Amino acid sequence: MSFARVVLDSPLPQLDRLFDYRVPPELEGAVAPGVRVRVPLRGGRAARGYVVELAERSEFAEAARDVAAVVSPARVLDPAVWRLARELADRAAGSANDILRLAIPPRQARVEKAFLGAQQGAPEGVPAVQPPAAAGPALPELGVPGLDWAGAVQRGERFALTAAPGPVRLEDGGWAGGWAAALAALAAHCLAQGRSAILCVPDYRDVEQLARALSAVVEPERLVRLDTRQSEAARYRGFLRTLLPQPVVVLGNRSAVYAPAHALGAILLWDDGDPLHREPLAPYVHVRDAALVRARQAGCALVLAAHGRSPEAERLVRVGWLRAVSVPAPRPHVMLATAAEPGSARIPPLAWRTAREALRTGPVLVQVGQPGHSPVLLCAECRRPARCARCGGPLRKASASAAPACGWCGALAAAWNCAHCGSERMRPGVAGSSRTAEELAKAFPNTRVLVSDGQSPRTLVDARPALVVATRGAEPLAAGGYAAVLLLDGERMLARESLFVADDCLRQWSNAVALARPGAPCVLAGVGGPVAQALATWRQPEFARRELEQRAELRFPPAVRSATVTGAPDAVAEALSALDALDDVDVLGPVEDGGIDRAIVRFGYARGEDVASALRAALVRSATGRRRAVAAGRAEEPELPRLRIRMDDPDVW
DNA sequence: AGCACGCCGACT
DNA sequence: GTCGGCGTGCTC
Fold it and tell me: With contact defined as beta carbons under 8 Å apart, do A643 and A565 qualify?
């Protein structure tokens, strides 16, 4: 008699552990580690789950019931992925099962059938090894001095890589960012050693770009894409492909970091500071953290590559976990144009001149902060937001010629006057991308003006002169690079209330500057101070280090970690009391908001395990303990908010 | 989540 | 004496 240890597919924290089931004779052999199973639960309920391992004996031998069925023979839960899910869940005070939901795409029966059919002849559950391909493409230069990459893959070394700015020409005549070519080369070398590489990039346009760069150096049948833009079927097909015992290059977004790639040699993460790398689903594990833990567990190499340096990456360099390396490149030509009168000249004279000059030789990128026409209208006198007379909503204009209307109730603001100063005149607030485009079209009558924003992003523009107005993050690549780059609305971008604005702005400006051709002028308008200096001198790591030092003094992340505890006041108090005995832990709050308490716990990295396990235990207690603390209220009382724990939430700062 | 077990009030 | 109320705790 043997037993199957099963992880249940349930969101309940109290079920987040392994359950033992007997393997009935008729399922002997079919129940194998990694397969999806159906199992009974007390009360005639059926649950789904994955077999984590088989065992000869069990503590629960008498209580154990039989595995009900094997859903399919595909071994979709890789042992290494299970270990990763367990550790990440523990670190994030969440369920391993929640991680598995990200790691294993939903089953597609038809896709799986085709996959298993192709494995005919191989022992059950063990896919056939495909013959190694004939001599592949020639390996590209790595271009990172002092980096023994082959040795690094062997020894599992970790790096913060600064990529060279500027686009590069690909073999097929196309263009890609230098960063993409660099990462493609690292992945190709890893593959040449017979090891898999995982490439994680923030958004689908980065996937496209990197896929182009990879196509020159990796055979197509060795490349597996796992991105959010794919259909469910394509994603599952790609996922199953990574289960085969042969090295591949996995390219994708956040969840690619969990791919069960065979003989993993390296994890390569592009632009770890991009907010798209934050996982929006519980337990909210950042891809950077997942990559760090996985690289340590797998003993594989890790590269955090960027044009700049996130404070998190800088911290890892400071503590010696990452070694800083870079692709040598000339420093970009960045000029600062500080407006004489603050808020007046949105496009300073230097920027106009630069654009005019550059337009003779190629496209000019204009980065703006906001999409659309003009999101808000302000009072022309007192500069306060113009409000709807009827409902108090913000007034805006849908296009240049449209009448101002309320963004909430839609009422036209016919005879408007400012509720504050009585003025009858409005002026546009921040100009959006299309408004800037109109403005520029007027100023440069015989020039093409292209717009790229979140709604209709462009990926590539040709090398002919054009003004390319793009919102931050939606900048197209230009063939040969931009002849000039103008960074507008910097002041407005920096004015956002968040601890991380400066990092974020510097990162986005750096990425825009990196789209310029070598030596092309780039103008940052209306911003001074250390952030602007860091961009102009192209010394982002030093800025990151200063940020980190300041945050260490204030005890802000990433100098420390944090946990947000929310819920009913007594539940929050109970959870916090579990932390009393720990040192290097302090609590901000709790503060009350609509019957819900919220507290922020800060702690040093060394305390992470203790804090997470204490909070997790409190969460389980609150989920299993007396459900209705106030049993007296029998009617539909406003349901008590359960306890919620979130580790390292950047949005609270 | 759902369901079984368990310890106090009205009943054939 | 027993049936059943729902609070409490467990799920291999």
Answer: yes
Class in CATH terms, A1-73: alpha beta
- In this predicted model, what pLDDT tens digit does every residue of A561-595 receive, in sequence order? 999 999 988 889 999 999 998 999 999 989 998 88
Closest to A494 (Cα-Cα) out of A455, A522, A535: A535
* pTM of model > 0.85: yes
Mean pLDDT of A163-171: 95
Q: From the CA of A600, how many Å to the C1' of B1?
A: 29
Assess whether the region A149-326 and the region A333-550 belong to the same CATH fold. Answer: yes
Nucleotide closest in space to A45 (CA vs C1'): B2
Alpha-helical runs (H) found in A96-172: 96-103, 109-118, 149-155
- Residues in chain A, total: 653
What is the residue-wise DSSP string for A157-183? -EEEEEPPPSEEE-TTS-EEEHHHHHH
A628 touches strand C (CB under 7 A): yes
For residue A340, what are the contacts with CB-CB under 8 A and spacing of at least 6?
A: none
Look at residue A38 and give its three-state secondary structure: strand
Structure tokens at A366: 């204009």
Name the architecture of domain A561-626+637-647. 2-Layer Sandwich (3.30)
CA A636 → C1' C8, Å?
A: 21
Q: Which residues contact A640 (CB under 8 A, 6 or more apart)?
A: A568, A628, A629, A630
Fold classification of A333-550 (topology level): Rossmann fold (3.40.50)
Does domain A149-326 sit in CATH 3.40.50.1460?
Answer: no
Question: Considering only CA atoms, which of A465, A492, A469 is closest in space to residue A479?
Answer: A465
- CB of A518 within 8 A of CB of A362? no
Higher pLDDT, A613 or A385: A613
Question: Tokens in use for A625?
Answer: 């303990």
**E strand or H helix that includes residue A434:** helix A433-443
Helices (H), ranges, A243-393: 287-298, 311-318, 349-358
Give yes or no for a contact between A204 and A253, defined as CB atoms under 8 angstroms apart: yes
- Cα–Cα distance between A383 and A418 in angstroms, integer? 10
What is d(CA A463, CA A626) in angstroms, rounded to the nearest whole number?
A: 68
State the greatest distance between any 2 C-alpha atoms of chain A, in Å, as a whole number.
86
Tell me whether strands A196-200 and A264-270 are parallel, antiparallel or unpaired.
parallel
Q: Nearest nt to A42, CA vs C1'?
A: C11
Footprint of strand B on the protein (CB under 7 A): A 12, 14-15, 42-45, 623-624
Query: Quick one: which of A342, A418, A413, A414 has its CA closest to A383?
Result: A418
User: Distance (Å) from CA A629 to C1' B8?
Assistant: 20
**Helices A287-298 + A79-91 axis angle, to 10:** 130
Residues 6+ apart with CB under 8 A from A386: A376, A377, A378, A379, A394, A395, A404, A413, A416, A418, A426
**Minimal CA–CA distance to A564: which of A622, A499, A648?**
A648
Ranges of each domain in chain A: 1-73, 149-326, 333-550, 561-626+637-647
CA of A233 to C1' of B2 (A): 33
Residues A539-563: tens digit of each pLDDT:
999 999 999 999 999 999 999 999 9
